[in-house]
Q: What sequence folds into this?
């Protein structure tokens, strides 16, 4: 049920299934593997299903929201779009360059200063160093970190790290931007600034995939929302309708259980 | 993506490692040469003073073997945990993960290069005047040792994700390799029937040549090329295994 003014598909999932191995077997090590070989082989075949046969499309320039309980499979979808994991079954097409803000401070080093981390993070996210150096004053200004920018980031609060992280990503010129729940720790002023930046991305036809538990943000930003429940798509469509159903479902469950 | 981007990526990450190392202690350089120097002292006492090993300039002999060894063993030991330590990069940022062991080996290589002035100091002390051989010799041997070290690091770092107790085996392996490499003894001390064991050790050829270079200003080229071919093969094997396993990194980290 695509909206008429979006036509070009930039991300497409076709009957995608993703399973994960059980972690306990992996960390048990070589000793365990050799001593309990038959058991270990059996365990290595056992996998839990993170996504079951899901299909959806994301169109160029839209803001696509993903909601659902913890552990439903939202982050797995983002990782699949980013390409850091591969599906077991099905096909995934990603037609543009993906930039991601998936975890606070990923790619930051605590002993380096904010300024040094901008360069490090920018390069890791795919920017040329020359470009980062050109943009660095703008990035610092956007982050509003002031004198803290020359302090090691282990002295930063979570909110400050989020500011720095978003500031770098905001200057990446992304084509597809994945944002996973990282804005929640910033203060209201910075959250507003991030939302404004995301809105300006939207105007520039940047595709945004946005995972959040803040329904207000989802309503404000997203053109379509996908609700993931029990590792599969429960509903996909207009934000107001999906969120209403999602909240309704939550309430009934709550009453049923207690 | 273009080659210039990879150059940026590797140089920024390597600079980061060096910065972090020296930020934590101003004496960083001192620490990185203290280890091989103190080992040299211990061996000097045990083998020269106690066991009276018949090697001339034994201190310098030890230094020539221990500094390159230090590079190799540091890189290999660190490689067991290096992907786990950088899990967020692999899981949250889509970038070529082989860069991580590559940067680690480069970093240890730079430390080795920075310790060459100390080796030079010892050479002068023992009245050995370096010739131009040092310039291309250092370059060739560094490349050869780099390929060997990186190949092994790639292999161990990727395998460790699947068997997390590999570190213990690697520790034992490194110790065996240390004694199986002519570092504190000479190749011709080894009885004939054990020689083949030493020769299959790719590090032996490199250490021999480092010592030829630093102590006698020459490189044994037949040995070098044989060893180089060996190291290239190890590098490609390590790289292939890493590549083969790397598509699973994201899900098991």
A:
């Amino acid at each position: 049920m695509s909206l008429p003014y979006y036509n070009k598909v930039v991300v497409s999932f076709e009957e995608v299934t993703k399973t994960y191995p059980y972690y306990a077997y992996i960390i048990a090590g070589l000793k365990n593997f050799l001593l309990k070989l038959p058991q270990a082989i059996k365990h290595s075949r056992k996998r839990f299903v993170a996504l079951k046969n899901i299909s959806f499309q994301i169109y160029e320039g839209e803001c696509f929201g993903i909601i659902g309980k913890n552990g439903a499979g939202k982050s797995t979808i983002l990782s699949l779009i980013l390409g850091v994991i591969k599906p077991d079954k099905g096909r995934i097409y990603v037609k543009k360059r993906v930039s991601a803000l998936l975890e606070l401070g990923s790619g930051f080093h605590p002993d380096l200063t904010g300024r040094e981390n901008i360069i490090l993070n920018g390069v890791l996210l795919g920017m040329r160093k020359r470009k980062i150096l050109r943009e660095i004053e703008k990035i610092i200004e956007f982050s509003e970190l002031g004198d803290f920018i020359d302090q090691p980031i282990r002295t930063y609060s979570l909110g400050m790290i989020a500011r720095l992280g978003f500031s770098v990503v905001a200057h990446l010129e992304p084509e597809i931007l994945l944002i996973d729940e990282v804005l929640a720790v910033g203060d209201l002023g910075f959250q507003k600034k991030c939302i404004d930046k995301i809105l300006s991305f939207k105007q520039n036809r940047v595709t945004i995939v946005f995972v959040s538990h803040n329904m207000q943000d989802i309503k404000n930003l997203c053109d379509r929302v996908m609700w993931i429940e029990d590792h599969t798509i429960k509903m996909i469509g207009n934000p107001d309708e999906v969120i209403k159903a999602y909240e309704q479902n939550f309430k009934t469950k709550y009453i049923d259980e207690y | 993506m273009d080659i210039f981007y990879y150059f940026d990526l590797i140089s920024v990450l390597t600079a980061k490692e060096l910065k972090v190392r020296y930020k934590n202690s101003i004496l960083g350089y001192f620490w990185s040469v203290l280890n091989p120097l103190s080992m040299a002292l211990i061996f000097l006492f045990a083998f020269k003073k106690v066991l009276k090993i018949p090697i001339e300039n034994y201190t310098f002999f030890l230094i020539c073997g221990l500094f390159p060894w230090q590079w190799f063993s540091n890189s290999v030991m660190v490689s067991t945990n290096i992907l786990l330590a950088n899990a967020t990069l692999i899981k949250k940022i889509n970038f070529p993960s082989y860069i991580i062991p590559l940067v680690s080996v480069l970093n240890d290589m730079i430390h080795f290069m920075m310790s060459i002035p100390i080796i030079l100091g010892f050479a002068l002390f023992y009245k050995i005047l370096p010739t131009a051989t040092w310039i291309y010799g250092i370059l060739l041997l560094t490349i050869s040792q780099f390929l060997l070290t990186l190949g092994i690091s790639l292999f161990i770092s990727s395998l460790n994700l699947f068997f997390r107790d590999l570190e213990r085996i690697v520790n034992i392996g490194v110790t065996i390799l240390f004694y199986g490499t002519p570092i504190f003894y000479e190749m011709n001390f080894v009885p004939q029937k054990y020689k083949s064991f030493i020769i299959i050790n790719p590090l032996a050829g490199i250490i021999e040549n480092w010592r030829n270079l630093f102590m006698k200003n020459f490189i044994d080229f037949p040995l070098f090329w044989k060893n180089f071919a060996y190291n290239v093969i190890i590098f490609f094997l390590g790289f292939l295994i890493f590549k083969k396993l790397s598509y699973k990194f994201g899900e098991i980290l």
Q: What stands out?
A: DSSP finds eleven helices and no strands in chain B.
